[in-house]
Amino acid sequence: MTEARVSTRRRYLLCEPKYFTVEYAINPWMDPSQPVSTELAVKEWTELADTYRRWGHRVEFIEPQPGLPDMVFAANSGTVIGGRVLGARFRAPQRAPEADHYRRWFLDHGYRDVFMPTRTNEAEGDFTWTGAVLLAGTGFRTDPGAHSEAQEFLGVPVVSLSLVDPRYYHLDTALCVLTEANATRNAHIAYYPEAFSVGSQRVLRRLFPDAIIATEADAECLGLNAVSDGRNVVLPMEATHLADQLLHHGYDPTFLDISELRKSGGGPKCCTMELRG
Fold this sequence. Notes:
Order of helices and strands: EHEEEHEEEHEEEHEHEEHEE
Strand order of the largest sheet: 2-1-15
CATH topology: L-arginine/glycine Amidinotransferase, Chain A
Shape: globular
Structural class: alpha/beta
Strand content: 15-25%
């Protein structure tokens, strides 16, 4: 019998891609020589925000800043668990100023436990909360030393995972949490094994034996850069095999066009920071 999936109300922070463009290349998806439509990126982002609101979630916004075309990717600028905020420290100098804008947003909105890391840490790009442990990616962006900083400040157990394919430079491009763990169940995830080292694949199989295994085609369209509320899942429209698997496991997938945002290596999750607690 397919397990009944239950949506839980979420709170998300988003940033309009008002200044979105691709003017530098810091991942394999970015090509400054290709045309980019800011108008289309805003349309894609607006549909994402509207989708969250249709599902009953609370959506908050941070003001975009000129000269920061990747600020739309809010997930990279903070990890929030239990009301504690672990900020970001970007590897690429082009994105470094984003961290302080998000830090000030948190302080202006009543957050007091805000810690800015000393090690390179690209937040929910490489930190994925399962409800029980924090999965932490490394290999291209976030330093391994940032994993211990996260454990110390957030007070949650951290499991390190090594990424080995530069196309999947952040953990959230290769893995997503579909249902969080609670007192009676393990977390349910989807992931693309080939994005991870052999040892990390063994870890994932041990921790999540019932995970949905994504195909190469799912991964190549950033299908795993999805957002789930426990039942509803928003994902790129090309991720059809993954959507079929989600339906089989009791989820309700919603397709979005992210073709313009993907030119910078981003999708639904990259645009979405979850504000927990």
